[in-house]
Amino acid sequence: MSYIEWKIEEDIGIVVINRPERRNALNKQVREELFQALKDVEKRRPRAIIITGVKDVFVAGADLYVMKDYTEKEAKEASLHGCRIFSFIEEMDIPSIAAINGWALGGGLELALCCDIRICSENAKLGQPELKLGIIPGYGATFRLPRIVGMGIAKELILTGRIINAQEAKEIGLVNKVVKRDELIEEAKKIAKQISSAKIAVSYAKKAINKAFDISKEDAIEYISSLYGSLYNTHDTKEGISAYLEKRAPRFKGE
What we know:
The chain is of the alpha/beta class. It has eleven helices and ten strands. The protein has helices spanning 28-43, 64-67, 72-91, 107-113, 141-149, 151-160, 166-171, 184-194, 199-212, 217-231, 235-245, and strands spanning 4-9, 12-17, 48-53, 57-59, 96-100, 103-105, 117-121, 125-127, 164-165, 177-179.
């Protein structure tokens, strides 16, 4: 049985986690199928990829029924596996949008954190409750959450395991927007359509923003200058500038 569904609509990839009997919990099979689905969608080169869950759950976390019997080696391997998949999402050339349709806890929130944009429905509940189980976040929240909401708030949420609602998530900058449940996917599509169709420039912008957190200011300047210069070898950059000067819509080709 497959737990991941995907499709392309209007140049937008939509990936759905469909394991309602376990509240979309992330076991190894779900992680591997998610990874494969994302790679398959990426090959189609859509403008953006939306990730969401079925019913009123985005992802309720990792699968505790599996985790309870982990050895030290198995726990480390599971953490590395999840981290590598989530890093793949973060580093994809294609922008990703987490459409959080309900509960996003533990590994579920960590999945949302690695996406470029996060929106949620009014009924969403978000949190990192791992410490209440005697473990720590294993898929990257300890380094992604502080970058998004700041060190102080990240430490509070992780150390207390407090679950927050959609409005508070918006107030602290954890999500970009809160919408009605039945408008969530359409709003995610709307945002996706607003992303530039100059796909090479979009991918370079993602790279530059992501890299900025890990290198010095001087290295960041050198890095973005290199990316900026290389864009002038592409059709799309020349087309975009020409179209603007000629007062017409650009015809980007992704090359």
